[in-house]
Amino acid sequence: MTKTHMFQNAQGFVLNQPHISQTQVSQAEKQGLKILLEASLPAIAYDSSEHPHNCHPGTRMQYIDQIVNWGLEGSDPGHCIFWLKGPMGVGKSAISQSCAEMFTTQKRLIATFFFSRPNQRDNPQCLFTSITYQWASKCKSYAKILKSTIHNDPTIVDKELHHQFHHLFISPLQELADRGEDIPKCVVIIDGLDECAGMAAQQTIVQIITESIQNNTTLFIWLICSCLEPHLIMTFKSPQISVMTHQEELMVSQAIDNEITKYLTDELAKIGMEHDIPVP
């Protein structure tokens, strides 16, 4: 292949104190980001077109305020995990979505992941890669380290979860700390953990998170929402995990009848306005 040089065959001009610059994104960085994107699920981000509905205005405020206050306070080391539990359909995902939006306005949200079997978002291998991709889009210094790391070893995205977590989070964070960069404590939201494929994978995810908190290798605080599956109850009850977890249970109760009434009233009024029907 013949190389073409700048100003080849040029004649009859003078360069007076020339300054030539070339801006180019590293090919390694581009390739690393592409590999990470292909191994993640963009649809699990809270602002995706497939995100769940948030809570109806004025409802579930007791839980939303409690979680947001927990997240904004940074949480003490003993409560770096908030486990929101309850039966299916009680509103955990809507609360997660509402909290994600509020944390975003406060610039305290790193990422979200909404597991969903019906929507084929249940692969545990995509959890940490997806969280990583979302955070990399917000933190340039972290993204630069990450892109280079993945370019040097593209198999990271296919590794066992413990190894993924180490290469995608622990090592880059240590490098940022060595540079003296201050990374504030921010929130990661994992919704529908019980819909992740495989009970063992669900338990492993919780164990990896708690180990990182114990060893102080990451600076995240975690909101985890799930149904009351026996294996998850057992996991969160273990002495090692329970001491660093705040637990709150959403229950089906007549106590929320007024919130149901508010929702129905507001929605019926909206329908009435759209169709010019008087609603008492």
Description of the structure:
- This protein is of the alpha/beta class and 280 residues long.
- The chain has one domain: P-loop containing nucleotide triphosphate hydrolases (Rossmann fold, 3-Layer(aba) Sandwich).
- Helices cover 45% and strands 10% of the residues.
- The chain is built from ten helices and five strands.
- It has a five-stranded parallel sheet with strand order 2-3-4-1-5, with helices on both faces.
- Strand 3, helix 7 and strand 4 form a beta-alpha-beta unit.
- The protein is globular.
- About 2% of the residues have low confidence.
Give the overall shape: globular
E-strand count? 5
Would you give the CATH topology? Rossmann fold
How many H/I helices?
Answer: 10
CATH superfamily: P-loop containing nucleotide triphosphate hydrolases
Q: Please, how many domains?
A: 1
Helix content: 40-55%
Instruction: Give start-end ranges of low-pLDDT stretches.
Output: 19-25
Average of pLDDT: 81
Radius of gyration: 24 Å
Give me the strand/helix succession.
HHEHEHHHEHEHHEH
**CATH secondary-structure class:** Alpha Beta
Secondary-structure-derived class: alpha/beta
Cα end-to-end separation: 80 Å
Protein name: Nephrocystin 3-like N-terminal domain-containing protein
Domain Nephrocystin 3-like N-terminal: 78-226
Keywords: Repeat
